[in-house]
Structures are given as structure tokens and as C-alpha cells.
Amino acid sequence: MVGILTMFWGLAVLDKLRLFVPFRPEHVAGGNRFCSIDDALAAGFSGLVDLSGLNIPLEASMTRDSDGKLTVGSLRHCWEKLPSSFTPMAFKVHNNASHYPGIELKASPAKILQGHNVFGPLDIGQGGSEMLTYVSMIYPELYDMLEVSATQVYEFDVTFSTRVPSDTVARQVVQALHSVSNGQTKNRGDTFETTAYFGSKKSRLKKVKIYLKEAEFENQLAEVKKLAQAGDKAAQRVFEVMSDFRLRDWVKGLLRLEATVMKRSMERRGVPTNFFQLAKYQRHLQKEGRCFLSEAWKYATQDIFDAWQGATMKVIDDEHVIEALKYRHVRFNKKSGKPSHAYAMNLYRTYRAIRDEGFIAVQDSMSSSTFYRHIEDITECGIAKAQLQSMKSIAQKNNVVPLLRFVEVDFSAQRPDWYREPVSQFY
């Protein structure tokens, strides 16, 4: 159960790390009057850097007046993707007069170290050092202008997984979660079949995302395959990793519970936000037998699990029926040629409704043509019409189960026995 948090080092996944690295004051206009970055920040100093000397791709802001005259404004750096051993890292130079200038980095340490984030390392020091080193290799002149020792952790994602009996049940769990909210962590209201979000999009404390990993993984694999076939060398390496049959088998039935913990939340809890201090803090807790990321994950998800106490859901697990419907009634997109199971899922919903409400009730709720077309297509899969007509409601006691039964987290089973921890070439 999630309430019993005996944590072990290495069981979570560090899924995203967002860093901010300020420029040294001497490279900021007007910054020479400060002896250190701490003095500049304490004084609320902002200022600008000369982007033209950083050897980074720039674009100018442009406006057009009512007469059609085009005016070229200031230079700016847009988000770009920096290459790594596997997946790229998002990088941007922030140079706004109202804020102290610096660079922002966003990446999944697991992905840049090993090509996937199904499971993986959780060492913040390792992940952040990997990210900073790539900046130093790609933009060495810019890197020398940074106050790297003052790097701040703006946010990080930590993820645990639980396994459910089937894809059908997993989707029902996600749908049940859409109605759950508690305390400051309310359901966001998005209605996605495979994902539930908690917490405001603009929250500066924490967010929680619960989703089916297999659906996300297969979509990512399809995207990577296209890039690999187009000759992208990094994508070819990622595709090779993600195509591993053991990895694809591991994600089946995997429900992911992802928590985003932000800088303000860490400050409130007395956790250091300086990257190097946080890495040291994490290692200190490790020596005490504690896992910082696991404790942060518990903090972010606790009120959600509290809300689930006592909640129930009705389970319908006819996996053999849905597979038969998908096999018999698969349709293909005329343009892309990709298979679609949308109609098969419509048939399955009709089948479920008959089990829930009875044959006559569903017949009365649908148009006659649609209903009998659905019945005909369902019976093509080996289910007799007489069987459908005699189905009893599944609203029985043994079909209504505690919601927490499907979101229990086994902290000792977060990785397969064949997994090997990636080794950083820099850390």
C-alpha cells in the first residue's frame, strides 16, 4: 500500500529535471558593481547580456504598423534542442530586462542516459551534471560566462508505477480517477481516456499526472521510428533501445503515477534548491537509508491517495471480448494506412451497456438501425444474440472493488531483474 513508505534507493524514476543557470554578473550590463552573483540576486538586479556574442541561433522580433511598415525589434533566443547520446535536451537563453538573465535546461535524465524513461536512474547529481556537460560541449564560450555554482532546480518529475490486470481495466481506473479531488490537488477537469491530471496548470507547488504507460510508449516509438528511417542517428539509437521486446512487454498494463515537484514547494519544506546542494542533500539521505525522490513523491501524492480511501469502482474485464472485436472490426486510415479500433471500441461500449442495463434498456436508448448493426457486428465475434439477450447486470458485489486495489504501488517491483543502471560518461 502507498501508505507504507519504506523506501529504497533506486526504486523511483527521475523523469524530468528543469534547471536555471544565471550568468556571472560581469557579463550582465551594469553587473560590474556586484562582487558576486549572490549580491546581485539579493539586490534584485536584472540587466541584459549581449546575445550577439554568444554564438547561438537568434531571431529578431518584428512588428508591422497599420501602414504595412515592418519594424525589426530586439534579438531573442527561442527554445532549441541540444543533442545528447540519445534524446535531445531543451535549451533557452532568458534575457528579459525584468529578470536576471540565464539559461534554462529541461530534459529527462533517464532518456538522455539510456534512451527511455520506463524505469531508470534517480540521481539528481548525475542527471544534472549530464545536462550541464552537454551545454559546455556545444556552447563552450557561453558556458564560461555562466555562474554554474548558482544553478537552481526549478522542478523535477519523479514517477512510480503500478500494474493492473489488463488495458481495459487500466482505462476504467483512469476514468474513475477523473472524479477524484482532495485538498489543494483537484482534478484538472481534462477528460482523456488514458490520462488523468491533478493540480492547476499554473501551480507553482506540485502537479500529479496518472496515465497508461503503454499508450504513451507506443506513440513515442512510432515517432522515433519515423525519425530513424529519415536518417536521424540519435533516433536510430533510441529506436533500437525502445524496440527491445522485454521493454515493450514490461509496459503492458503499467499505470504511471508521476509527480512534478517545484522550487517553491521545496523551499517551503526546507529542501535546498541549489543544484549542487540538492545533490549533496540527496546523497546524505541515501546514507541514512532514505530516498529523497520517494519522499518527495509521497508528499506530492498523499492527498490524492487520501481521497481514494473508501472510493470504489465497477470493474468490467472482458479482455477476450474486446480483443475479438478489435481483430474482427479493425479499420484503416485512408491516408496514413494506420489501424483504427475506434469502431470496435464503440461496439464494446454497447456490449458493456447490455451487461450493465440489459438488452431491452439499451435497445430503447439507441436508434434501431445503430443498435441492430452493433448487435450483428458483435455476434460476428462469436457471441450469440441469445447470450446477449439473457445477460444479467454486472452490478454485483464482487464487481465493485476498492479503487486503491488498482493503484497500490509495490516499491520493490519498479524494475525488471535484467535492468542495468546506465553509467554517465561525465559524472
Describe this entry's structure for a reader:
It is a single chain. The chain is α+β, with helices and mostly antiparallel strands and 427 residues long. It has 2 domains: 13-55 and 71-312, no CATH class; 317-393, no CATH class. Helices cover 38% and strands 19% of the residues. The strands form 4 sheets. An 8-stranded antiparallel beta sheet has the order 4-5-6-1-7-10-9-8. Strands 2-3 form a two-stranded antiparallel sheet.
Shape: elongated
Percent of residues in helices: 25-40%
Give the strand tally: 14
Strand content: 15-25%
Return Rg in Å. Answer: 26 Å
Instruction: Identify low-pLDDT runs.
Output: 1-11, 393-398
Largest sheet: 8 strands, antiparallel
Q: Structural class, judged by helices and strands?
A: alpha+beta
Mean pLDDT over the residues: 84
Number of domains: 2
Q: What's the order of the H and E elements?
A: EHEEEEEHHHEHEEHHHEHHHEHEEHHHHE
Describe the strand arrangement of the main beta sheet, using strand numbers.
Answer: 4-5-6-1-7-10-9-8
**Total number of helical segments?**
16
Through-space gap between termini: 35 Å
